[in-house]
Each structure stands twice: as structure tokens, then as C-alpha cells.
Write a structure and sequence with these properties.
126 residues; alpha/beta; 2,3-Dihydroxybiphenyl 1,2-Dioxygenase, domain 1; 2 helices
């Protein structure tokens, strides 16, 4: 039924201007403005629609993952851009804020951070 339609994901935010600065200015993504919000051009060719929502509340889970070649470098670049990595109780974060899952055989190396609206994003290295 929907196999021939174009599909895309959407992400709510509280402030489109802050989202544009964060995703374009700090993360370096291509951000296109449109009458209904923003379109983020994601690595790999996909896109994400970002819209302002008056009833927005951030999810308690990761909504966008960025696979990176070197998580240590990516974490340093985020920190230099003024983005703080999240630390979750009960997880073994290293001094940089990265959970080294590969070293203990439990998934990828991963670190989380938030956008200005509180959406949880991650960088991960498989």
C-alpha cells in the first residue's frame, strides 16, 4: 500500500531558530528552511523534517543516531562545539563520556547528547 510513497521521519522541537543553529552551526548538517519547518540533510542521503510543536516534550530515548568512524574524535569535536555528553547512571562511561561497549562485548561504543529542545541524540562506532 505505501511502498511507492516517499517516506521521511519528523522530529519536534520547541524553537526552530535554536534547532537550525544547533544542527547546522554546531553539528555541521545542511539545513534547509521550508514553510513548515526545517529539513536536515543527513549523512548517507536521508533527510529529517524538524518542526516546531507547541505541545512538544522530548522522548526519553534516543531519536537520532550518527555512526562515526572515530568516536573519540567525534566526542572531542562535540565538546569543542560546546555540546556536553550525557552520563547515565549505571553505565560505564569513560573519562570522555563514552560507553565502550565493544571492549566488554556488549554493543557499539556510544555516547549521547541533547539538542536544545532536549531530544536525545547519539554518536556511535560499530
Amino acid at each position: 500500500m505505501l511502498t511507492s510513497a516517499h517516506a521521511f521521519s519528523g522530529l519536534g522541537v520547541t524553537d526552530l531558530a535554536a534547532a537550525k543553529e544547533f544542527y547546522g552551526g554546531k553539528l555541521g548538517l545542511v539545513v534547509e528552511e521550508n514553510p513548515a519547518g526545517l529539513t536536515l540533510q543527513l549523512p548517507g542521503g536521508s533527510s529529517l523534517f524538524v518542526y516546531q510543536s507547541p505541545s512538544f516534550e522530548p522522548a526519553g530515548y534516543t531519536v537520532l543516531n550518527f555512526e562515526v568512524a572515530d568516536i573519540t574524535t567525534a566526542a572531542t569535536e562535540l565538546r569543542l562545539a560546546g555540546i556536553e555528553l550525557e552520563r547515565y547512571e549505571g553505565l560505564p562511561h569513560d573519562e570522555a563520556g563514552i560507553v565502550r561497549g565493544k571492549s566488554v562485548g556488549e554493543g557499539p561504543d556510544i555516547a549521547w547528547f541533547r539538542d536544545p529542545s532536549g531530544n536525545i541524540l547519539s554518536i556511535l562506532q560499530n
